[in-house]
Write a structure and sequence with these properties.
single chain
Length: 74
């Protein structure tokens, strides 16, 4: 059995809004649909999404950090 990815707990602590937003802005219908699923997911399903597509969500989370830093007032 593969051990859990250590990035998943970090993803669980992040704001869904920013990750979903950058996924929608990326332009892919697949990632837009995944963003909708993320928005609608409870914590258990959010963990499942993050565990299944960890690399993709991690990449979007990094982009989300940059976007949030640019847009949130200090």
């Amino acid at each position: 059995m593969t051990p859990p990815d250590p990035r998943v707990p970090d993803l669980m602590r992040r704001e869904v809004y920013w990750i979903a937003r950058v996924m929608r802005e990326q332009g892919s219908r697949f990632y837009a649909a995944l963003a909708d699923a993320l928005d609608a997911a409870d914590a258990t399903n959010r963990r499942t999404l993050y565990a299944t597509w960890t690399d993709a969500f991690w990449d979007f989370a990094q982009r989300a950090d940059a976007l949030a830093a640019r847009e949130e007032p200090e």
